[in-house]
Write the C-alpha cells for this entry.
Amino acid sequence: MFDCKKKYSNKKFRKNIQLRSKAYFKIKKINERFSILKNYCSVLDIGCSPGGWGEYFKNKKIKYTGIDLKKTPFIFGLNFIKGDLFKYSSIKKIFDFLGKPELVLSDLCPNLSFYNKINHKNILKKMIEIIFILLKKGGSFVFKSMSYIKISNFFLNYFENFFYFITKKNSSEIYYICKKFK
Ligand SMILES: C[S@@+](CC[C@H](N)C(=O)[O-])C[C@H]1O[C@@H](n2cnc3c(N)ncnc32)[C@H](O)[C@@H]1O
C-alpha cells in the first residue's frame, strides 16, 4: 500500500529546494506534457496537503481551491478547505467558493487512520460521483491510481480524450488524464 508519509520523509530534499513536497514535480510534468491548464481558470485540487501542487499553481492566473482531510498551510492567493471530500458539506463549500470547476485534480491516497476500508477502487467510484456533480462541461479531470485499471472505455464515454501517464520510471502511481467532459 502506498504511504503518503514515506513519500515526504526526505527532509534534505525539501530543505534544498524549499518545496513542500516532491508532488510539485509530478504536476509540473503532467502540465508540461498535457497542457492541462490551457484555457481553464478554475481548479479544484483534491487531496491537496501539504501543498506541493498548490505551490505549482500559486503564480498562475487561476481561481484555486484545494481540499484535504489535513490542514494545508497557507499559500497566498489560494483557498484551502480542511474537510472530507466525501461529505456533502465539503462539496457545498467547494461549490460556494468555486462554482463548477473547469479542472479537477485528484492526488488522493487512502489515509489509513481515517479510512481503513476505503481502497483505490472505492475512491475512484466516489471520484466519479463527484465529477458528475461538480465538473463543468468541457472541463478536464486528472486523477491518480495505484495500479492500471481498465477504465478507458468508461471514461471515453464521458470525455473526448483519455490518456495515462507515469511520472517516474518504476513508479506504482499512474495518473489518468481525461479531457473535455461531454
Ligand atoms: C499524496 S497526498 C497529496 C499530496 C499533494 N498533491 C501535494 O501536492 O502536496 C494525498 C492526500 O489525500 C488526502 N486524503 C485522503 N483521503 C481524503 C478525503 N476523503 N478527503 C480529502 N483528502 C483526503 C490525504 O490526507 C493526503 O494528504
Q: What stands out?
A: Helices lie at 4-7, 11-17, 23-34, 52-57, 88-98, 120-134, 152-158. Strands lie at 42-46, 63-68, 79-82, 103-106, 140-145, 159-165, 174-181. The longest helix spans residues 120-134.
